[in-house]
Amino acid sequence: MDAAMQILRCRLYDPRASPVFASAEENRRKLYDLFRHTICQACNNSALLLGPRGCAPNVGARARFERNPGDFSGSNFDRREDLLFVISPLKLLFCCFRSQVRLNGLLHADDRSALKEIAKQLCVEHELEFSKAASFEENLRFLTVILEQFSLSHKALVLVLDEFDLFAQKPKQSLLYNLLDLLQSPSSQAAVIGISCRLDADQLLEKRVRSRFSQRKILFLPPPSEEITRFLEAVLVIPVDSSANLAQHANAFNAKISAWLQMETTKELVNKLAALDSSPRNIIDSVFRNLLDYLKNTKSTTPKHPPTICALADLSVLELFLLTSMKRLENKERDTYTFNSVFKEYQDGYKSSDSYSKKAAYKAFEHLLERELIGYSDGRAVSTLSHLRPVKMLISFEELEQGLEASPICPATLRQWYSQPGDLSMFSLITFSWNVSAEA
Amino acid sequence: MDFSAHILAAKTALHLSAVPEAILCRSEQIDRIIKFSKDCLLERRPGSLYVCGCPGTGKSLAMEKLKGLLSQWAVEAGILPPDVASVNCTTLTDATQIYSRIYHSLQPGADDDRSVGYQQLKKLLSFNRGAKKMQLLIIDEMDYLITREQTVLYELFQLSVLKDSSCILIGIANAIDLTERFLPRLRTFSCNPEVITFPAYTKDQIFAVLLQRLSSLSVATFHPAALELCARRVSAASGDMRKALYACRTALDLFEAENKSKSTEPEATCLQRDQFVQVDHMARALAKVFRSPVIETIQALPKHSQMVLCSAANLFRKRKRDAPLGELNKQYLGFCKTTGMRPVSSQEFSGICQLIADQGLLGLGTAREDRLRKTKLQVDHDDVVFALQGVRFFRNSLL
């Protein structure tokens, strides 16, 4: 049982161990060939891994460096598992023949600290003494010397640059120039891998740096929607070792997972998520909650509301009126709206027996601000003309709609008013501006 | 010979660091530089030279060759071979460090910690104060030494003009008019550095160099038409030899991958006489090298991002300037209305725009209010149309 939990946890949370889908297999193979070429055949290489955030580029690079898959007993894995484990014997071989350095464009703000970091990582790995006072030139000389030593002992250096586009946006790009220049000499054996989410990362390079870069770009794309279900299956199904005692528990669990994946609600949820952002990380995070609910009570899935909906369900009627008026104003493509315009919309649009005064409405408005369901959009901390400050909604339309459904006191007429189409009429615009000048 | 071993040999031959013995197509420039250096050495007078050209045109390569040729000739002619100091200015953090660098390359035993100034370097390089041999200074990427006052560059060139100086200065940079534009006062102290331009490689030159690199292989690997396509394309684009070599390597990768998947016993096949890297491999490799993978990325975007990109393409077709985010939102809402899709709220819309901007497809500025941020389409309108026209949903909406 513990082992199964460990496996699932690692797959879901540890980016190094999460499996990759078939369309990225080819990219991993290309990367693997590149590394093999550098390490075994002593050729210098450089490459750029591009892809949207949450897709494989980071995973692809990190999986290459997994030193020892010692946490898991290697015999249990079947063909669906990571390329990582299939080639693990070779990887152990690689361990002796390569040395790695990782840099991040966000952390190492300028070339000097980046080079210092390279020197530090190399020193730590080879148990040399690192001097903090070493200058840029000394660190560079150290790097050159180490590379020469490596090539004599048939070892390769792999440099991974995360957020490569940030390195390229430095004014002088001297770090990139020097690193890529080192790849040109026959006495060094190194690979420089850049990871970036910008497609035009290599256009940001200066022309002499770009000339030295090998133009090899490996593109990591999010999976097409058909593959997402297969991917989820691969993540969640525990591999079953028929000889183990808990085999039937594992089988039962896997059956539950398959049933969950076949459910209509799950498919709908996955499609909705994929329409917004189909990176694997996002999908896993978002369906996880749904999955847990399903697993806890298989009989009836009581949908638990996210906190925003609970907050909306608790609001008073006047507050709901105000929120609906804001939504209608947004539908009318009003760029900015203030409390006054919201109140006006409510008064004009919603005809009902009870009418609230402006003071009461303003109190309700302040309450909404406190609950952070709406917010001021001009960014100033305090302002005197609070009725005239532009506001914006901090919840989405769908959340508002769900909140109206869930609220026990929401009148049916309000729900109708919500779904009535708004129209962009010049008349209301004119009256709006008239009101503003009247109030000011 | 084994297939994979052969491919490996081809890749090694095409690698940047595998410099051939004889350098083709640069003989005229190398001859001029050698003649200049020889004259200076024979007459024991200082001089300066400025070498310029686009990246990848063989300047550093020529310098390496020059060092070897010059010392060989000096020994033959019976004069003292010059000391060579070669500095790449990108490794300097400050322009004035160049003096220390040159000093320490010429005097390897000197005290490393001391920083050396211009005066001390001048002393080292002057015959009257004890210099025995001529010194050859090669300054690579000289434009990194450009500062506001240009003191360092002027002083360096002055070193080559002083009567008793013993140095021959060769500066390398990309700009053709560096000496005229940044150093107009050179003429006042009668310094006229000779300018030698390394032009971009022509189609025939690239073809010749590629053939020379591949001549060391026992079996012909590339179809001549493929090499010619590569030469034509690269010379039309930039004339950068490195790009040509990279393109050939990429074509080799594609050829290898294709053959691996085709044959059942990949280890056993040898390279047949008629198995070449064909024109279509080269064409695909060139497409990879010269284009960024915009089309595939757009096709792989999630649905809503594609809709936003489509609205942006339509919006920016009509206007050339930046548009605020609010206008893009309006366009997007109109698009949703015509196609009957439910639009996302404004918060989610900004999130989607940020996602696309992170990938470099859209440019997004900063502003006080979210709706006022400036947006600009960073990819070609035609690329968006081409990428999305296969999707039925977008076909009617793209202009």
What are the key terms here?
heterodimer, A: 440 residues, alpha/beta, 55% helix, extended, B: 399 residues, Helicase, Ruva Protein, domain 3, Rossmann fold, Arc Repressor Mutant, subunit A, 3 domains, five-stranded parallel beta sheet, flat
SSE map:
The complex is a heterodimer of chains A (440) and B (399).
Chain A: H1 2-13, H2 22-41, E1 45-50, H3 57-64, H4 83-86, H5 88-97, E2 98-104, H6 111-126, H7 136-152, E3 156-162, H8 164-168, H9 174-182, E4 190-196, H10 207-212, E5 217-219, H11 225-236, H12 247-262, H13 264-276, H14 280-296, H15 307-313, H16 317-331, E6 337-338, H17 339-349, H18 358-370, E7 374-376, E8 390-393, H19 397-406, H20 412-419, H21 426-439
Chain B: H1 3-14, H2 27-43, E1 47-53, H3 59-77, E2 83-88, H4 97-106, H5 118-124, E3 135-140, H6 151-159, E4 167-173, H7 178-182, E5 194-198, H8 203-214, H9 224-237, H10 241-262, H11 279-290, H12 294-300, H13 303-318, E6 323-324, H14 325-339, H15 346-358, E7 362-364, E8 374-377, H16 381-388, H17 392-395
Parallel strand pairs in B: 1-4, 1-5, 2-3, 3-4
Antiparallel strand pairs in B: 6-8, 7-8
Protein name (chain B): Cell division control protein
Domain Cdc6 C-terminal (chain B): 309-388
Subcellular location (chain B): Nucleus
